[in-house]
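Module 6 notes. Inverse folding takes a fixed backbone as the condition and produces residue identities as the prediction. Think of it as a translation problem where the source language is geometry and the target language is the twenty amino acids. Below is one complete input and output pair. Work through it position by position during the lab.
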């Protein structure tokens, strides 16, 4: 039973003309310039598939070894099919999904100590299996839908990248299996990351934006899994990745897909799988953590003082993961941080953040000039795990337009301007949340009822960010960084923020109870503080002006709320004092 990824159509794509197609590994690289995007089942399948394509390109094309070679590839407008074809032909036997001895990214002949297998639900996070039960799963664990070979290949890559942690089935031939299982397994190779990778208007642009320069010596030793010895039940936890290519194809599990012939169609399908422990990234020392950072280009990193104390090593960084309840642009600071080379010294003055190298390298003068008119976006993907990382609780996916000038290695003007806009927006939204808090207290909520007040603040923030989200993306996409002065753009954004937050403030005031307008006084020790709707609005307006002061001059529009006796807000403020 054969299904070779080099020849078989297993990658669904959208072509530049809008039509759908399925392409083989050979075809998708040869026609990458004709492909608008991969059309996979979930966003979390994109990073492992793209990283697989990058591994093939790095090895087949032998580079890029520097910016000069990268520019030559860029001006060609497509990948050279001849070396790619020759490389895939040389290693074709290792891409057979069902080869009995060396199946693609699997361990041939893998058997469980208990002799059992599990359904394919085990490798599909949104299908119920064991204690990983999504709320609205449309399939049962006992008999999920069978996978055709193309889908099985995509979920195989996904499992290596994102599989849950904890206990795995013990394999025959694994000397570290005990009582039919292995314990202490970490999540898949991408599970600890907040994946961030640049994308372009075509698959070719996306791959070019992610091809980082690699020196010839590193590239010669940096081999993908199919150029290494066949996988067996034995796994390793002491071998470091030799570079980004080996990390892109890291076999974090030992897997065996068990094909069978579907009686209805006569075609091969996969209903049963075996997933066992696989290679673990060694991350138990400062040097190993430093090596991980140097090899992994698709995540931002944050300096960890706890890890520095534990390992007596500086600096030590840990991946920045995405927050499922936050839009990507609210965390732009880590994405736009420089990815600086770390020396051998103590690094006491090292930066607090390191940006994803795949993004940072686009800010070089040569690449920035070529990408100036290319609509580059950032794809962000991540999974959140629960119960000791044994179940998937949240999936995160977002895209954001990103003018490459913001990544400039020479000029921080526009980068700083955008980051200041994000920070000012955060301060401004906090003023709306505080308005909701004050109105709740004025209406009768006791200040010590923090849980209830936190709910009012949270709802105000969520509604404000929902309204600002699309506006910020549009503003970011329409920036003109070739202009010297970012102040007009900042002023325009501040005007948008002010308008939206005033609208939401008006809604909060309109929905406030009569008690909130009557107000009340609350004594704290020796002082008495008054809470009412009119005073809350005045406080909100003053705080909003302060929050946006770095972007725009204060707004002197008078407040709309009147007190219950017809007096305007200033008199109420004076009375409160």
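Target side of the pair, the amino acids:
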């Amino acid at each position: 039973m054969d299904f070779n990824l080099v020849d078989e159509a297993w990658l669904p794509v959208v072509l530049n003309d809008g039509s759908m197609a399925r392409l083989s590994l050979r075809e998708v690289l040869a026609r990458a310039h004709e492909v608008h995007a991969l059309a996979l089942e979930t966003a979390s399948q994109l990073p492992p598939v793209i990283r697989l394509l990058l591994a093939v390109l790095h090895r087949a094309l032998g580079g890029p070894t520097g910016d000069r070679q990268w520019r030559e590839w860029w001006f060609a407008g497509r990948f050279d099919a001849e070396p790619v074809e020759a490389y895939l032909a040389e290693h074709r036997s290792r891409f057979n999904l069902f080869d009995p001895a060396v199946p693609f990214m699997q361990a041939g002949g893998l058997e469980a100590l208990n002799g059992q297998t599990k359904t394919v639900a085990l490798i599909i996070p949104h299908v119920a299996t064991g204690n990983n039960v999504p709320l609205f799963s449309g399939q049962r664990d006992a008999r999920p839908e069978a996978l055709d070979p193309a889908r099985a290949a995509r979920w195989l890559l996904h499992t290596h990248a994102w599989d849950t942690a904890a206990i795995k089935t013990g394999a025959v031939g694994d000397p570290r299996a005990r009582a039919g299982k292995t314990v202490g397994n970490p999540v898949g190779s991408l599970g600890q990351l907040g994946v961030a990778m640049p994308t372009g208007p075509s698959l070719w642009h996306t791959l070019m934006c992610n091809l980082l320069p690699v020196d010839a010596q590193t590239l010669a030793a940096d081999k993908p899994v199919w150029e290494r010895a066949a996988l067996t039940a034995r796994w390793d936890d002491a071998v470091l990745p030799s570079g980004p290519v080996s990390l892109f194809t890291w076999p974090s599990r030992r897997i065996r897909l068990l094909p069978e012939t579907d009686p209805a169609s006569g075609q091969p399908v996969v209903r049963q799988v075996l997933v066992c422990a696989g290679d673990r990234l060694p991350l138990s020392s400062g040097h190993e953590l430093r090596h991980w950072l140097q090899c992994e280009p698709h995540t931002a990193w944050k300096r960890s003082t706890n890890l520095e104390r534990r390992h007596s090593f500086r600096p030590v960084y840990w991946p920045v993961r995405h927050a499922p309840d936050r839009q990507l642009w609210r965390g732009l600071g880590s994405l736009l941080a420089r990815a600086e080379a770390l020396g051998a010294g103590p690094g006491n003055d090292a930066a607090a953040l390191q940006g994803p190298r795949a993004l940072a390298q686009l800010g070089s003068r040569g690449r920035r000039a070529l990408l100036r008119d290319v609509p580059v976006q950032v794809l962000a993907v991540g999974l959140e795990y629960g119960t000791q990382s044994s179940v998937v609780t949240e999936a995160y996916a977002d895209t954001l337009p990103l003018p490459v000038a913001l990544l400039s290695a020479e000029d921080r003007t526009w980068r700083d301007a955008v980051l200041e806009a994000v920070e000012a927006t955060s301060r401004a939204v906090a003023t709306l949340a505080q308005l909701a808090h004050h109105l709740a207290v004025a209406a009768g909520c006791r200040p010590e009822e923090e849980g209830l007040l936190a709910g009012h603040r949270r709802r105000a923030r969520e509604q404000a960010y929902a309204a600002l989200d699309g506006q910020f993306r549009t503003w970011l996409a329409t920036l003109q960084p070739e202009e010297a002065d970012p102040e007009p753009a900042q002023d325009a954004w501040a005007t948008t923020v002010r308008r939206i937050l005033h609208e939401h403030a008006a809604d909060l005031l309109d929905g406030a109870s009569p008690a909130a307008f009557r107000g009340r006084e609350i004594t704290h020790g020796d002082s008495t503080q008054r809470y009412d709707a009119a005073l809350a609005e005045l406080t909100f307006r003053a705080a909003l002006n302060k929050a946006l002061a770095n972007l725009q001059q204060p707004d002197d529009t008078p407040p709309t709320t009147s007190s219950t006796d017809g007096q305007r807000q200033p008199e109420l403020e004076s009375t409160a004092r």
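Reference fact for the lab report: The chain is about 40% helix and 15% strand.
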